Amino acid sequence: MKRRDFLAATAAAALPLACRPKPAFPFGGELVGPNLALGHWLRGGAFPEPDRFEPISTLIVGGGVAGLSAAWRLAGGGLDDFAVLELESEPGGTSRSGQNHVSPFPWAAHYLPVPDRGNHAVLRLLKECGVLEGFDAKGDPMFAEEATVRAPEERIFAHGQWWEGLYLRAGASPEDERQYHAFFREVDHWAAFRDRRGRPAFSIPRSRCSDAPEARALDQLTFAAWLDQRGLQSPRLRWLLGYACRDDYGSRLETTSAWAGLFYFAARKQGPGEDSRPLLTWPQGNGFLVDHLRRASGDRLRCGVAATAIRPDRDGLWVTAWDAVNQRRLGWRARRVIFAGPQHVAKHVVEGLDRPAAARIRNAPWLVANLTLRARPKEPTFPLAWDNVLRDSEALGYVAATHQSLRDHGPTVLTWYRPFAGADCDAERARMRGLDWPACARMVLEDLRPAHPDLVELVTRLDVMRWGHAMVRPTPGLLWDPEFLALSRPFGAVHFAHTELSGFALFEEAQDHGVRAAEEVLTALGRRGASWR
Amino acid sequence: MSEPLSDTQPTLKAPLLFLSVLLISSCGLIYELVAGTLSSYLLGDSVTQFSTVIGVYLSAMGLGSYLSKFLQRGLARRFVDLELAVALVGGFSAPILFQAFAHTHAFRVVLYGVVASVGTLVGLEIPILMRILKDQIRFKDLVAGVLTLDYIGALFASLLFPLLFMPKLGLVRTSLLFGLLNAAVGLWSTHLLVSQLGPTRMIRLRCLAVLAILAVGLAFAGKFTLAVEEEIFADEIVYARDSEYQRIVLTRGRGSFQLFLNGNLQFSSADEYRYHEALVHPAFGVKPDARRVLICGGGDGLAVREVLKHPSVQEVVLVDLDPAMTDMARRQPMVRALNGAALDDPRVRVVNADAMVWLQETAVAPFDLALVDFPDPNTYALGKLYTARFYRLLQRRLTADAVISVQSTSPLMARESFWCITATMESAGLKVRPYHLAVPSFGVWGFALASKRDFAVPTRVLPGLRHLSDEATAAMFAFPKDMDRVPVEVNRLDNQVLVHLYAREWRRWS
User: Fold this and answer.
1) What is the ipTM, given to two decimal places?
2) C-alpha R_g of chain A
3) CB nearest A406 (choices: B360, B495, B499)
4) Is B387 on the interface with A (CB under 8 A)?
5) Per-residue pLDDT reduced to its tens digit, A327-354
6) Which of A186, A374, B448, B486 has the most other CB atoms within 10 Å of its CB?
């Protein structure tokens, strides 16, 4: 063996040692809830009867924002004899939050546009939380500085760098600018619209919106078709509006009702020609509001408990449930039930409930990842904002949890969002469910790599939530369909509350339905008082 | 008459060789001074740095002298090579050390390595030269002559280094220049020792090559300093460090030194007393009995120095983001001398935290005087420290009659920014009295004095200050027309108008 051959052989032998397969990721993490197994188990039916049925005035099924708001309203109305059953280990639904050694962080919904003076329920809640500080000379509410999104609010990554704002002004042609302004003139028109009864076309919650035919007509076509009719083809404008659809509805221009597309912008206007309302946010996102709302329930909130059957009879309701924590059957004899879960669960749980319109509700799946970082990525261009969006991405970008807590240095948590916006929700759901943790982690890192090539070295943990039914999609024709709207009406002694009854997912909608359902119950139980809505 | 000399050796130009002793001893001492000065700048604690550098250097010279006995033949040729080696290692010592500090974590290893190498090489020089000359000159004359010139050379070096070379050339150019001198001695020696060298063409080429390398080094001296941005500073950089949060640079020249953070001047030692007297003493004029003082920012320790002049002060808490900054203020000899070692005063507690996060999250006993001395609001991360929310959080940590003083940029160059800070403080429920003075390094500079309760403009300050008198203090509160109040929006977390205002206004002046 020649010396050179020997060296080559040694090097070849050493190579596998030097290139020993590293672990795929230099950090840990896991797939966290929601509890798919327990949720799907409910569909199987056939649960044995519990030993006894505890009498109760009202049972709230579902501890998301709608359920917690219903409890908040019942408690506020002096009704204490209720319980809230929540399938998951934590309440809040898609407003849930988490916390680690670095920061609290959202698991989904993470902001609230400041309410106008007519949104009484949200104002009441914010006052209780100390966020509403009073009213200015014009009578408009004023909010705490620390809860209002801190500047810089948004930035967008395009052409290899970050730019301020969400609409990419750099490189926009005069025609782009013209169409941008033309669109917002349309928005202004609808923001100024009042029907004969003085109701606006667009307001939050939607129960305050006008049902005038000219507004309802917008629901008959897609947002894309509506833009086409007006010759609004600017790619930048359509990107912005498409982003809005993905962000708020988990759908695309082509699958979103034009009514919903305009609602997104017009309902947030302070008035025609004025800026959009500021946003309220907290490090843990809307988890802040959940933390307040759940106090109204106290120990009447039962987590890890799934209602398995709600059987009406002449004098009330028999409710059976499965306590997954203590592994036992539970039963209640309730006068009223507020079903604050989605309709696709209701049809399995509420006996005799058969409303075909419920089948029209389609929920988009979402993947949300929380990345814990030991340090910030290098930022040579526009600095880290609250909302950080990559233009050329199927995902929505990320929110920095430490932005609102004023921490500008050191460790942080980034919450990354990706709706599965394809037309077929079931196929998208199956696709998402097929992703294991490494596939999810890879998806997140590859999505962010163009903007943050140094990210992988900084991540200490990456946790993933796969929301199978994250957001109801406002598909054309759904929002003003009388049969769909009738889903909010009680079924005997069962009342319904859920954001999907509005046709889109917003904290305010969930709260509005919760308060409405609670007030229906209070009225039915002879405790009618002034409405909080 | 001299003793008879051997005829076997051709005669050397002995007096001129003595002159080269003078030069090489000067060079040797310069390298030692360069290493000592540089390590004091960068590591602080000049006594330790100079002691250890001198110790390592002298002992290495001893090692060199010892090793000289193993060199047997071709001493003249060895001597020339030695000169070239000293020229390269010594000449490039300052660039090497600066680069090591900026780019490695092993600065001390490199420092003592370089010092030991130069010392060893310099230690070889004199014994070899003496052995070259031993057959030309009587031993007693040789020893007397060589050592006399060796020590006199040291005197030249030690006088010229602080008086001429440091101020005029700076460390990098000084070290390269003396490298050139060493190489020149080498080249010259090929002429003086020609009788002992044999063929000189190659060795002269070597000398020329080394001279060329050093000359190129000197031409690009700016590139070898601590920072590529040296050219943007008027003076030599004597300290530069990238901390986790910012780039800290100290420059020195024209009889003063300056601190820059991210390229922005924070103070010049020539006139910082005006700034810091104005920041601190008017507040004490309103609250002369202040006992607990909070300083937000001000990691250079200069405001603390002024605060500690007040006998009522029992406790000072300084909250500065950057431990690299407060460490430098404690250790860097020039800064430490300027702040009078204020950060080591037993009354002072240093907290390294974001002041706003600290105010938000840390419960402490209330302060009765607060000084807010942040860099100007040229980023969002700094802009938040000038928001209404910041001043509200600050008030939560103060007594009811506490006084606040805030550095608030230039009312002349950034008029709207200045009044924005005043308006913002007022929106947070404070009574505000803005004032200004001239700080030559900055221009006209502004501050805002504030309290939850209404208060009168201070008319008395501590006696014995360098700039402020009772009259000068009262005069600061009058605003001429071109700096007078303009209507501006309040700076809030959710609008950060100040960052935009400030960028727009200062763009006009740069």
Assistant:
1) 0.85
2) 25
3) B360
4) yes
5) 889 999 999 999 999 999 999 999 999 9
6) B448
